[in-house]
Each structure stands twice: as structure tokens, then as C-alpha cells.
Structures
1.
Amino acid sequence: MRAKRSGRRAPRSGDPLWGALAGISGAQNLVAEASRLEEYSEDMAGFRATPAIVVRPGSEDEVRRIVSLAGRRKIPVVPRGAGSSLTGASVSKGAVVLDMRRMDAVLKVDTVNWYVSAQAGITLEDLNKRLEKDGFFFPPDPASSSICTVGGAVAEGSGGLRCVKYGTVKDWVLSLRVVLPNGKVASFGEPLAKNRAGFDLVHLMVGSEGTLGVVTEACLKIIPIPAAKPKRLLLTFDDWRSASDAISQLKASKIMPHMFEFLDRETIQAINKNLSTSEDEAEATLIVDIEEPSLGAATEIFERNGARKVVMAKDANEEEAFYQIRSMAYLAIRGLGKAVQVEDIVVPVDRLGEYLMKVKEIAAKRGVKILVNGHAGDGNVHPVILYDEDDKKSRAAAFHAFEELCRYGISVGGSITGEHGVGTQKAKLLREQMKAHEGEEALRLMKEIKKVFDPEGIMNPGKYVEAA
Amino acid sequence: MRAKRSGRRAPRSGDPLWGALAGISGAQNLVAEASRLEEYSEDMAGFRATPAIVVRPGSEDEVRRIVSLAGRRKIPVVPRGAGSSLTGASVSKGAVVLDMRRMDAVLKVDTVNWYVSAQAGITLEDLNKRLEKDGFFFPPDPASSSICTVGGAVAEGSGGLRCVKYGTVKDWVLSLRVVLPNGKVASFGEPLAKNRAGFDLVHLMVGSEGTLGVVTEACLKIIPIPAAKPKRLLLTFDDWRSASDAISQLKASKIMPHMFEFLDRETIQAINKNLSTSEDEAEATLIVDIEEPSLGAATEIFERNGARKVVMAKDANEEEAFYQIRSMAYLAIRGLGKAVQVEDIVVPVDRLGEYLMKVKEIAAKRGVKILVNGHAGDGNVHPVILYDEDDKKSRAAAFHAFEELCRYGISVGGSITGEHGVGTQKAKLLREQMKAHEGEEALRLMKEIKKVFDPEGIMNPGKYVEAA
């Protein structure tokens, strides 16, 4: 029997579920009142679903007992960190939500074997603050680093600005402790630089979006904070074709930026308007971190491709100011007063220019505004669709634009997601990508693996692979 | 019904299996005579099993048709590259062996998106020769690079000397084309810098040792050949404790060597004896590649820990000579005229000294000779057990020593394999490691995943996870 997915009234003191959970984690760690459940009923993209009850477990053993209980009663279970997911992955109607943030201990910083072992509920920011004391860092840096948790970042396989150089979360996980849907505890992988004992279940958990089990602890690779800081450049171009050619040529010239971001004219306009700045409102703005030895070659490439401005930050303040342009983009766009949908498509780097021009074409056709920013070095585009939430036609136009953005990405050999994941939002599009690229067998195997881990279908049900 | 594993007479011209396979790949691409099957009946560690027939497919479609045929007839199928496996993974009694080496094309070198796409049968050496033309390389460098294939390296999740800096094969695979045991073709992953669409089946294939499907093509990340070469040092120490302390301190000092190898006194003695060299026969010899800026700090660490010799290679010739000490070790040991078993244990780097002393203790207790070399920077030890093949007692002693080496590794938080894999050799020890570290649920999930991919049990049966 699959788990029930229909809504259920939130249990109250005296209700058997409330009582059982209170017996495990203490009544003070339950959230069941409608007003307090609100916080857990929405993710950062506005996907909504009200849980039955929230538990804030304090230990792996509590997680194990809660999952066992939910399994026996066939109630959905959803692990949750900050709820900063953008795809509906962290909300589930009628579910027992596990707010993992009480489990936030750093268990070990190993400066010889270069790993950190931590509980799932610590934020990436706190993790990095702790690592900084020893001169180390954990490279993946999602925009939500100040609130998002290790468990959430593992479940989503998150990316970030530094990932062009360092890769995403999947490249940094050595081992995981997991409470399985059957209530048993397992460890996947080993806290070792090398390990070939058994199939790789670690990477199956990374990006599984809470559908295979609850990550309680992670052992993550860390590296020393680099001694030499790269130089930061701000560039503008008059058209995307030139900017895109410059990006491709930089990579073809074997230059590996530490960060390589882009923003379009409308994003810069939003920033200037809302944050009272006066940045150059060019068609394309790039912000690039380049190591000193490659600076000359990089500048030459940018100028050869018609950059109308190439500015190197002259000091740490200016470096921070350049960075702020990128990091303030979302806030500035929010300030435009429209509903916002942040998309996440990956295309081959040499098709970036073509894709960005297509974005504008789709926007014009659908009559919605689409701003773009993203990670140029790995072809990861974040189109931001603006629409009017109260207008049915505008909502429909935004939805059609979103689907078209994904489908065009698939058609040029891209992926519907680089770092945000699938959740409920893209389950149908995941199926389309699999059919177009991987083949239906790949999706079938994923669905079978889901059943192996979760035969009763209690873990974050009705989403992602299961729903594709 | 599971595949039959008992021996069968090799089919001949006129036999229906022979005829069917000749119809797919051509009679000239079949090997069925006993004398020619010999080459396919043994791996590099001497694990023996005679296949029914060998086919040398020329295309993915042929592989698909062969696997379908084997599936219908419930005959085991084993993909094979050079057969350089050391664990019995590439030999299987009565099987249809797919010698993949005719499928050796480089399909695409993408210097913008930094990947190479190639068929499974190309050797790593030929792949790197092709990449060198564009100034790129594929970092993992198993000792068998001159013969081992991309498919074999993916199936085994191979490591090598450069892996201390760059990681093993698992860190370099973007996507794979796979013929599944049901004869269907799937693609796993995408040739993109980032991709979060679906569960990670790529990493499930890496290190699956031919038990989940046949890899026909791989898309591998590549990086530019570094402009600045590190400096190469040769060091000797009078005891393992000091050498091991130096290794740990180097890593704790945030120095990342590009290569960090070690050899013991008896290995150096074997080299001096068999290759007429006159290397310092110290208890511990280290060969380290260090980037120039860290050279002073590294030298200081080595000297502080009592290195009796710290020599920097003065030119490319001397660099090559230092490298040859390491790469000739196996040949020199072979020259001792004994049967040789090369082991592959990983321990936390800070327990390396303790482990190496235990190796000598085990050797003394069991009355066998055990030489050691390996990759110091990632704690990967290759004990080389010498024994007399014709002496039952010596064989038994070697076997007990081998098991003890693995078990002691497990007991100090290590792994029974870092880069050679499990095969038939370590299936029982895999179970022991899982029980001790990961828990039995992890192994159960692996076995279930094997059944999902291969319900009829035709792919490289009776080994690894299935046999654990």
C-alpha cells in the first residue's frame, strides 16, 4: 500500500500521533497549531502544502523512531532544512515534516584527512565559519548558504557561484548516515580519500530530494582556503553573441575562472532602480574571478570580442561591490513588485548566447518579462520570469514560458536543472528530458530504485522521479 | 531463473550460439578455440575461469544484440577491456565475454565544455595521447594506463598516482551509454558541467565491475595540462613512524602534493637487485611532487621529522628516474621469482604508520614476505604478498595474511579497496566491511539494486555485491 497523500487535520494534544511524537521528541519540539504550521507550508518559490505536524528531532535515534512510526501508520515523511527549495521538494500535504535544524553539531574537523563530519541541520554558513578557524572551507556555495542546511544541500545536490571551479555538492560528499524509510539506519560510503567497497550509494542520495531517506549526518571533503586570491573583473558587452563568444573562448583558452557570473540589462536596471546604484546598463554584464597569471590572456579575449568595459576591482571594497551586483540581483528583482519564478536551466557553454537570445524571444512571444542571470562558466542559466499573480492569463503565460525555457534547453542538449532540482515543479519535464536524452529505461531504473528504498512510498511522496 | 554458472563446452562453428554470435559480429570476431580462449581465462592477478566464447563487438548495436541473446539463453555476459583487473572481476566460467577493444574511437573532444566522449574500448594512454594534442588530459592514471580501457577504468572506478590531487575515475565521469542486461540501451547523466535531473545513475555504474550493464561510451571531464610543473622530491626515513608523521603533517599544513608515493626497504632492495640500481635502502622512501610555493614548507616538515635524505630532482631526467623507482617496483618484485599478490587497502592518512608496522607484524606472524608501496597522500596501501605457489602451506599463509591485512584495515576505519575493487576476491570481506561500518542495510540495498538492473542475474554473475 502506498502512503496516503490526502490532507489530514493537524493532530492535537491528546491525538495518538501527537502523543506518540511527543513521546519521542518532547511536546516542546512539536509544531501542530495551524498558525505555526504556516512557516512549514511554503517553500521559497511559493509551492504550498500544509503538513500534518512538524517534529524537530534532536538525534538520529529520534529520527529513526519517527520514521518507523510514520512507516507503520503509512504517513508521508519529509525531511526539511530551511525550506529554501524552489521546486516544492520540501512541502508535503498531511506529512510529518522533520525540521532537522536542531541537529546542527559539527562532529569532527579532520585537517589531516581533509574532511568535516557534521549533523544534517547545520547551515552551510555556520559550517564554513567553523572550518575557517582551521583555514579550510567547503566550496559549494548556494545563494541560500546563510540559511540552507547540509542535509538540504545534499538532498538537492546544490551548486553555487564557486562551482564553476570546484563542482557542486555531489563532488564533495564522502559518506552519509541515513535513516531509511523502513526505520533502519545505514551509513553510505567511508570518510576516506578513496573507497571502492560496494556500489556508490552516496551519490544516489545526493540529489534524491528527500525521496530515499533522511540524511542525519554527512562527511564532506574540505580544502584549504587558497593563499592567492584571484582578481575580480567587471565587464559589459553590447550583445549576448559577443559576450557568449568571449565566454566560450575563455574556456577554450584553458582559463578556469573561480567565479563567472552574468546578468542582463533588465537585471542591472532593476538593481539601479531599487538599490540606487548607477551600473552600466549594457545588454550583458559579466563578473569574473581570474587567477593573476591568466589575467592578460583573459583581458585580451574580452577586448577582442568587443567588451565595451573591462574593469578590474582595485581593492577588496570594490571586489565586494562587484559581488554585490550579482548577489543583490534577486532582491532588486523582487522589488519590481511582481511575482517571480527563478528558473534553472543548463546548456552547453558554447550554446549560451543562442539560449539567452531564445529566452528573450520566448518572453516576447508569451508577453511576460524574463530577466536572466546565472553561472556563465558552466552554462547554468537562471531565467527569472515576472508575472502578475492575480491575473490568470499572466500566470498561464508564465507557465508556458517556463515550459518552453525547459524544452528549448533540452533541445540544445541541456538539462532542466543544474542546481535547484525537480520536486513537484519539473516532474513532467524530467520525463521529457529522460525520453529525449537518457531513454525511458533510465527513468524506469530510477523508479525501481525508489521502490527498493521506499516500498511503502512514505518518503516525500508524489514528487520527482516517482511523479515523472 | 538465475543464469547458469557451470562450465559449458566452448561452442564451435555449427553450434547455435556460435552461429548466432557470428551472425551479429562476424565469425572473424569470435574466439572459441581453447588455445585462443586462454588469453581471456585469467586476469592480471591470476584469477582463472574459462569463458564459453569471446566476441569482439564493433558497435553498440552489436553489444545490444549480444546481450539480448545471452539474456534469452540465460548465459552469463562479462564485458572486458584489457583484463587487467586484480580481483577476478573480468573472468567468468562459461560466459560470453565481450572484448570491447575494437570499440576504441574518440567521438568528441570538447575544448569549450571540457570533456571527451569516447567508446569504452580505447586505452587510457591512447585517450590521453589524443587529448594532449589539444593541451588537455584525463587525470586518473592507473598503473595499467597503457593497456587498460575507459570501460574497464569506469567499471573498476580506478585510481592512480595523480589521484591524491585529482581524485579517482568517479570524479571525472559526466555521462555513460550503457547496454542493460535486458538488452535495452540507456544513457545515464548528461555531458554538462551541472545536471540535477534525476537520480545519479552514473556513479552507480562507476565501480559496478560489470555487474549492472555494459558501458559502451563514456563522456569524461578533462582539464588543461597545467602550465607549471611541480617539483619532484625523493626522501628517505629510518622508520615508518617518522615518515608517517611527515605525511600527516604535510597534509595538516594544507599542502596538496600532485603525487605522493611510498615504498619500503624490501621494495627498494628488490629494485636495486633486479634493476642494478643503487638507491638508498632506507626503511621508508617517499617520492613527492610539490608545487614550488610550498617547497620550503614541505622540506622543513620532512627535515623536522628526521628525513635522512631530501633530494630535489635537478632536471627532467632525474624527475623521470625518481618516477621509475616507483613504476618499476612491481616488475622488480616480480623478479624475486615468487608468486605475488598485490593488495589494496585504504586507511586514514594519520593511521598509515601504524598500519604499515602492522603489515610487517602480520608478515612475521604468518611467515610470508610482504613488501609495501602505495599512495601516501590518500592512505592507499598496496601490500605485496610473496608466497610459494607450489607450497600449500605458503599459499594458506598468504591467504590468511591477506585477510588479516583487510580486517586490520577495516578495524582502523579503512576500506578493503581503494582502487582495485572487489570481484570474487573480496566479496566476503566486503560483507565484513559493510557489517562493521555501513550496516547490513547498505549491503541489502546494493543487492536489491543489482536485482533491479539484472533480474536474471546474467551480468558478471556470482561476484562482488551479489556474492557478498
2.
Amino acid sequence: MPQLAAPPPIAWDGRELRLLDQTLLPAREEVLVLRDAAGVADAIRRLAVRGAPNIGVAAAYGLALAVTDDPESLESSWALLRRARPTAVNLARAVDRVRDAALAGGAAAARAEAEAIHAEEDAASDAIAAHGASLLAAVRRPLTICNTGALAAGGRGSALAVIAALPAVEQVLACETRPLLQGSRLTVYELRRLGLPHALVVDGAAPGLIRRGEIDAVVVGCDRVAANGDVANKVGTYPLALAAAAAGIPFVVAGPTSSIDAATPDGAAIPIEERDAEEVRRAGGALLTLPDTPVRNPAFDVTPAALITALVTERGVARPVDGESVAELLR
Amino acid sequence: MPQLAAPPPIAWDGRELRLLDQTLLPAREEVLVLRDAAGVADAIRRLAVRGAPNIGVAAAYGLALAVTDDPESLESSWALLRRARPTAVNLARAVDRVRDAALAGGAAAARAEAEAIHAEEDAASDAIAAHGASLLAAVRRPLTICNTGALAAGGRGSALAVIAALPAVEQVLACETRPLLQGSRLTVYELRRLGLPHALVVDGAAPGLIRRGEIDAVVVGCDRVAANGDVANKVGTYPLALAAAAAGIPFVVAGPTSSIDAATPDGAAIPIEERDAEEVRRAGGALLTLPDTPVRNPAFDVTPAALITALVTERGVARPVDGESVAELLR
């Protein structure tokens, strides 16, 4: 398969933040050049940049840009960025770190802290891939949802980095991931660039294929891991966990420890973002239903720890996933 | 809410079959006028008419049209219609009945048999609705998938007829039902005509909402019920059954006994139609992914009998659902 050229998802030159606009992929590769916190917050809200780790990195740079331009804007920009999206904990953690750095050392320290967060996420990806590939070495037919590659997380990503590192992979099944189709638009784009054989399925079809024995393991990312090991991830993840458990195949969550929030006791305490109705009423711009149809549109769901075979992080693997094994990762 | 006017899904005047073209709903209400088996088979294949019972009714009229025009075409038209779609057993059963009638009594008998099948499905709907509403009288917040109203089955339909008959319904949650969006296009259209409060969700979101306690019961139709009670239904049904079982809420299948196939021992023996890749690559005409992306597109999945709380038919309710209770319905 052809390797498609692409700009990096996040690029920083010390003065400007460049984000590959993921809302336009795979049809167009356009780069947003951002110089202030408002622009970064808007890019996060409308998913031009997405994936819990990359949201954190982008927000960190956004706050660094703000304090470089005007040190007085620290608190207001911090608050603006912190509330751009509610579910991923990486965002709050990243802007908190940059604010602390700015308070201690000014704009230069804020920029250095944002760069450190970026470098940490890049390094985490390689370690996650190595741990995950070791755990799942025999897996030939993995299934995933949403996008967890370089577009979502540092380096080569989280769950998709694990899949790309599997030694015997034959075919990756990618869920399209309604409503915003991160699977159809982004994961397929990255799988093609990686040269990995793949097929796309609608989200509702994946559990039936798992039941029919066509999948060896489900590998997904995470937007927030609670202290007890419950995981909030892209809506549609929980049914994959139910189906994997029923079929007796591994359900593995991969992500950096920056997505673990020890202050959130369990999944019920994770705020679930409810997004705009138009996302459900439309796909690819086309109206799919009557124009004013009422909609429920939670962007995430919660998978209870008991359904998760293993949590793969850059610091190692929690298995089984419970309060004790998650706490061990953070020690 | 406004009651939208609409032509009936299936109308027969003894010489022509009129089908409301469901591929164009809800944007346009156009009626196909069909006079031969080839036209009916094509309408079935491309889902202009759909829903297991209505596929059977349309195919029955298609064969009646064929033998009226040319008695010699009985066998070839029977074979053409019988293979138009593989999963719903109603189609095979209906054309077998019309063929038997034609062999015994010629074209007039074939037409009468098709009319009898149509009348039976209309009568079944009322009985299904009554049995289901009695079983689920306390349900305020049902969830359904695909379309199971008058567009899919006789009378007011199967699962949607049950939902419309619930005495205390507050809100119906409708899964959009990718890839062909029968929920967004057809169920929303029918719920509005029925004046029932409703909201649309993407298929992947429904299990998470069930887990959060927002749903009282899942009510779905069936394309084929095997002798042991396993049910093939629209792809995306099985994850709803898993989530209902995990949450301890009823998962109820509603359909006429014409959808039960005693000759199919279990779900593994039900042929699952795999449809065109373009259905997954597109929605509402819009391309959602890279143009030549490989696709898996099973149109149905199988829910094992053990996950089904009750099977509601015009002859009564099987509960629990197993080989014995299903056989009892057919006695």
C-alpha cells in the first residue's frame, strides 16, 4: 500500500503551535498555525486536535503561548483551556503543570514544561508499544475503536502503537466510531500509512464478529482511568468489552499513565461530555434524519475494570486491573 | 408533533404492487409501481422494501405477479425471489407458499395466497402489540434498533408496535442503525408520525446508556428465530442484549411466528448476509473514508437465546426463550 505523506499532528518551534486539522482528514491535510490560547482551546473543542494525550500536549503549548504573550493572562487562559473538554484528565493535568511552571519561573519555564510534557508523551508511546506487543505477541487479528495512533497520542500513539508493534498481525479490524468517524477517517488513514492490512466495520457489527471468533483481542485507548481501574473511552468501547468477555478474548486498554486520575475514585465519577446533536444527525456533512430530531450524544462510555484484561502503560502492565494494580503503576 | 402523511408501505390492487421506496425516506416519499418478479426482487435486494415480514409479503406478491403474467415463469421467478436476500426466513416461506398455491390452483390461487400472507402479517401485528404491551406495561424508557414499524412488518409492525402500545412510555431511544440508518431514517419518521417522544443515538452509545440506568427495556425485531431460540436480527442487536443482561433489564424480541424457522437448529446455522462495502464507506451519500478502504459488512448478528428475556409473537410469549418454548409457539 502507498505511504501517504503527512505533516506531523503537533509541531512546535518555540513560538508557534502547528496542528494538523484532524476534522478535514482524510480528504485534506491542512495545518492550523496557532499563536494564542483561544485558538488552541477552539481547536480542542472542535476536535481539530484530539486523543487524550495530544489534547494535553496542545493545551500545554496553548498556555505557554498565552503567558509568553501576556503573563497576566495566566489564570484566564488556564481556565479557558482547562474547560475546553471535560473527560480526558490529561488536559487538566497538562495545563496545571504549565501554570505551576509559569508561577515558579515565568514564560520560559512554561514553554519548557510544555516541551517536557510533549517529550514525555513521545517517550511513553514507545514503551507502551513494547509492553503491549509483548503481552499480545500471538494476536493476529486485533480490533480497535476510535483513533489511538500518532494523531491521538505521542510517538506512534497508544493502542494503535501496540497494534503496529504486534509481530504476527494479519488484519486489523477498525470500528468506524460514530458519530465523528475517527475510525473511518483517521485510523484507516494511519493504518494505510503504516502498511498494515485492515478492514473497516460499523460499530454495531464488531461484537457479532467477536462472537463469531473472527477477532483475537480488542485493544483500545483511554480518555481517563479512574483509581479503581474503570476506564472512560470513546463511546462504543463498553460493548466491545462485553463482547470480548463473552467470547473469552483479551480486552486490553493502552495509554500513558498521564491518563490515570487517582483523584477520580471510579467510573461513575468521570464526567461524560455530551456533544452537539448535529454530530448524530449528520455524517460527512450529509443530513441523515429529520432536521430537528432530538438526540442523545454522549462522547464517551465507561468500561468497568472487571471487564479489562490488562492496562498497558509506559511504566508497565496492570493485570488484573484493580485499585491495587493501578496504584502500583503510579508509585 | 406534526403527523406526516405517507403512502402505505405496501399496497396491492390485484394487478400491481405499490411499494413506498424506503431508500429515499425520510427526505422523499416516492412509490414504486411493480408489475413483475424482477422488479420486486430488485426492490428487496436494494432495501426499497425491508423488514422480514414485509420482505415476505412483497415477495409473495412478486411471485403472484409472475405467474399471472406467465405461468411458465413460476420456477424461475420463485428461485429469483427466494435468493434476493438470505437471512430472513419469511421470504423463503412466503414464496414457497405462493408456489404451492400456484401449482395447485394457478394464478388466481397464487394471488389469493399472497393476499392471505399479507392479511396474516397485518393481524399478527395487533396481537404482538397486545402481548408485548402486557409483558412490558411498566416500561417508560424503551430502546430499539433498526426499524420494526409499519415499514417493516404488517399492521403497525413488530417491536415498534409493542412500543407504541406501551401505556406509560415517556421516551423511546432509537439506535441510528449503521450502515443503512434505518433508525435515523425510518424509525424516527414513524415515531414522529405516532407522536411518541423520542431521541436518536449512535449504535455504540446505547450500551453505555443502558449501563447508566437510562433504559428500562430493549425491544427489538427479528429476521430469523432458530429452533433453539437464537435470534438473527439487524447488526448491532447482540451488543444491546449483552448490555441489557449486564444491567438486569429485559431484552425482548418481538415478531410474527413467520420469522421462526424450526428447520434451522441454532444461530450458527443462520446464513448472515454480507453486503456491499460502499454501505460502510458512505452515509447519506457522503464518502466517509478513503475511497477503496477494505470493509466487513455483515447485515445481521446473532443473539443467543440465553440473553433473550422473552420472545413475543402473535401466538403468545415464549419465556424463557429455549427450544421447548419456541416449539410450543409453533404447535
